[in-house]
Amino acid sequence: MIEFRQVTKRYDSDHTALRQVSFQLERGELAFLTGHSGAGKSTLLKLLMVMERPTAGDVVVGGQHLNRLPKRQIPYIRRHIGVVFQNHQLLFDRTVFDNVAMPLEVMGVSPTDIGRRVRAALDKVGLLKKEKMNPMQLSGGEQQRVGIARAVVNKPPVLLADEPTGNLDPDLSADIMHLFTQFSQVGVTVLIASHDVALINAMDRRQLTLEQGRLIAGGHSGH
Ligand code: ADP
Ligand code: ADP
């Protein structure tokens, strides 16, 4: 579902963020992306979101070569990639329902379908009863689950998360990880950038480890 082939990203002569990174993630696989600050994790996620383009090599998602994608196609590709942020980026001037509905409204989905799909997403994260509330009234863990519902509301085959448990205590973090596991079990490919060593070890999943832009573990192909 996700493939990096010898991907190098150089921002300028002093900043090479990724060096010949190669790996594949299959449909339904859940993996962690680890490494110290500055190792290249955000850059790798940005290449998948087509916020940056590789300097060399290929990034392929669902058979699509992202580096050859014309600009006008980028919004369509992004619909296939759900993203969860550490600070969840919810809007506090609208309800939980309306926050989750946002991606569907952008796509022009009919109100009936929006209602059905938003409630299905809220049900998956256990927040169906809180659809009318303002995110401000929710706990940190619940807010993060609203962010996850929004990321999966259009059923993307790929889910990316950037430090999704950064502000949560261990119990809530485990709940969030359980949700990610459930999505992977229904075929979503999940890649989670995280520093949370205890949590990652408890999960016992594949770890892609970056060090100064090189993939030093988890690539499975000798890189
Ligand atoms: P991480 O997410 O692991 O902290 P980043 O991908 O943010 O790592 O950064 C990797 C390297 O690339 C760092 O040396 C960083 O300073 C550099 N870098 C990131 N973004 C830019 C940019 N827009 N311009 C120049 N250098 C950048
Ligand atoms: P994080 O640790 O969350 O990646 P940073 O402060 O490293 O946060 O980066 C914030 C933003 O600045 C990111 O979009 C990153 O790509 C960009 N950035 C990081 N390093 C540089 C750099 N040396 N020059 C320009 N932009 C950079």
> Approximately how much beta-strand content do the residues carry?
25-35%
Q: Return the string of H and E elements.
A: EEEHEEHEHHHEHEHEE
- Indicate the mean pLDDT: 93
* Strand adjacency order, main sheet: 6-7-8-3-9-10
- Ends: how far apart? 19 Å
Question: Which ranges are low-confidence, i.e. pLDDT below 50, for 5 or more consecutive residues?
Answer: none
Helical segment tally? 7
List ligands, each type once. adenosine-5'-diphosphate
> Which structural class do you get from the secondary structure elements?
alpha/beta
- What is the helical fraction, as a range of percent? 25-40%
The biggest beta sheet is recorded as: 6 strands, mixed
What is the alpha-carbon Rg in Å? 17 Å
C-alpha geometry: globular
Q: How many runs of DSSP E, i.e. beta strands?
A: 10
Topology, please?
Elements: E1 2-12, E2 15-25, E3 30-34, H1 41-48, E4 56-61, E5 64-65, H2 74-78, E6 81-85, H3 96-106, H4 111-124, H5 140-152, E7 158-162, H6 170-185, E8 189-193, H7 197-203, E9 206-211, E10 214-217
Parallel strand pairs: 3-8, 3-9, 6-7, 7-8
Antiparallel strand pairs: 1-2, 1-4, 4-5, 9-10
Helix pairs in contact: 3-4, 3-5, 4-5
The structure holds adenosine-5'-diphosphate (ADP) (2 copies).
Pfam family, one: ABC_tran
Domain ABC transporter: 2-223
Keywords: ATP-binding, Cell cycle, Cell division, Cell membrane, Membrane, Nucleotide-binding
